[in-house]
Specification:
18 helices; binds pyridoxal-5'-phosphate; 454 residues; alpha/beta
């Protein structure tokens, strides 16, 4: 018998509840506030989110049942396989064991459909007919377009950050195929978009701008709500199926991680794998949990913990998070999904409470790691995912130096088959690193002066 490569679960083993880390923090998270610092109640969110999701957003219940219909959607691609990366281990000559959870097997190619199908379903239950959203690399837009077609009877309007819109034309085609409508942001369709285009017709756009446009579009019709693919508490919650499955799979293979690693943009795939293991850690497990972000967008590693808006036009409530400032426009790095200016309040809080660590890595090291991964394990990772791989390789090399057996678990957040332009740039030798200069960091945080502090 050759050695075991993957651990698969049956459909019966799909987790039946989401895990809510908010129930287990020693200190509760600061609430969202308005510009005067006053905590905002659920009603204030009701115009942009349906009440059933707002209830999840503010919930401190530890376990929340996954409705049957949502389980039915998740079963299309879940449980996802856990792989032992034996060929990567061999190439690295490491004593470390490397496992990765393959979230790239979903129809849209990433972890994002885990929350997209839940959000589309709850909105439909609430009588909503149209969803708006923004998308960076196009992963979230395609996940939501897929989810809207799956639940049926739901229009989907996506504002896609201009630079990605140009770099990733096939993402737009995926959205159209699933019946979604995708435009480049900033667009001429909203007031915010028109204003920003008037100031700078050549702007590459940003997630912050696209969010403002999607919210403006949402406010136009009563039967429309807005969705976010990351950052918010209920999104973190929906992703915890990843870590729960991984716990079960590690148990089945008779192993347990010393290190858990995920890449972090808004924080959702990281939260998905990490939060169930943070729960283990709170109960005594000896485990390090690492969020890895781009050097060009170093939210957890270098940005202050502040109250900040989720978008450029400050239409969202102020959230307590590590933030580069809502006016931050990241350099044009290829990991579009990691360019957001803020980090999920729950992930930020987990960091402040000492449950997790963070690292940042430049994109050339990430692509080098991605290419080694593709040439050993076969699957071509998303540029975002490559950050988790690069951190995994760092940990594996450390294990070699220390001569230690170590078990590493990584979340493989998605495939890169729609992101081959970045690979072309890397393989042609055109990629550079953009460590964020200190002056720029200082400058981009100025927009938070005068806002209340957590
Ligand atoms: C969107 C995306 C990310 C980053 O978003 P998070 O909310 O931080 O998970 C990472 N990997 C892939 C493949 C993505 O599509």
């Amino acid at each position: 018998m050759s050695e075991q490569i993957k651990v698969v679960l049956t459909e019966d083993e799909l987790p039946k509840q989401w895990y809510n880390l908010a129930a287990d923090f020693a200190h509760p998270m600061p609430p969202p506030v308005d510009i005067s610092g006053k905590p905002i109640g659920p009603e204030a969110l009701a115009r942009i989110f349906p009440m059933n999701l707002i209830e999840q957003e503010v919930s401190t219940e530890r376990w929340i049942d996954i409705p049957d219909e949502i389980m039915g959607y998740l079963k299309i691609w879940r449980p996802t396989p856990l792989y032992r990366a034996r060929r990567l281990e061999k190439a690295l000559g490491t004593p470390a064991k490397i496992y990765y959870k393959n979230e790239g097997v979903s129809p849209a190619g990433s972890h994002k459909p885990n929350t997209a199908v839940a959000q589309a379903w709850y909105n439909k239950q609430f009588g909503i007919k149209k969803l708006t959203t923004e998308t960076g690399a196009g992963q979230w837009g395609s996940a939501l377009a897929f989810a809207c077609s799956l639940v049926g009877g739901m229009e989907c309007k996506v504002f896609m950050v201009r630079i990605s819109f140009d770099q990733k034309p096939f993402r737009k085609m995926m959205m159209r195929t699933w019946g979604g409508d995708c435009v480049a942001s900033p667009s001429m369709e909203t007031e915010v978009g028109r204003r920003i285009l008037a100031e700078d017709p050549n702007t590459p756009g940003s997630l912050g701008i696209a969010i403002s446009e999607a919210i403006e579009e949402c406010l136009r019709r009563d039967d429309t709500r807005y969705t976010l693919g990351s950052v918010l508490n209920h999104v973190m919650l929906h992703q915890t199926v990843i870590g729960q499955e991984a716990q079960n799979q590690m148990k089945k293979i008779g192993d347990y991680p010393d290190v858990v690693i995920g890449c972090a943009g808004g924080g959702s795939n990281f939260a998905g794998i990490a939060f169930p293991f943070i729960n283990d850690r709170m109960h005594g497990a000896d485990i390090r949990i690492i969020a890895t972000e781009p050097q060009a967008c170093p939210t957890l590693t270098r940005a202050e913990y502040r109250y900040d808006a989720g978008d450029v036009a400050m239409m969202t409530p102020l959230l307590p998070m590590h933030s580069l400032g809502h006016t931050f426009v990241a350099p044009p790095l290829h990991a579009g999904g990691l360019r957001y200016h803020g980090m999920a309040p729950m992930v930020s809080h987990a960091m402040n409470e000492g449950h997790i660590e963070a690292s940042s890595i430049g994109q050339t090291e990430c692509y080098e790691a991605a290419v080694l991964f593709a040439r050993t394990e076969g699957f071509i990772p998303a540029p975002e995912t490559s950050h988790a791989i690069a951190q995994t390789i760092r940990e594996a090399k450390r294990a070699t130096e220390e001569g230690k057996e170590k078990t590493i678990l990584m979340n493989w957040s998605g495939h890169g088959l729609m992101d081959l332009k970045g690979y072309e740039a890397y393989l042609d030798g055109h990629l550079q690193d953009y460590p964020l200069p200190d002056e720029l960091l200082q400058k981009s945080q100025v927009c938070m002066e005068g806002l209340p502090r957590p």
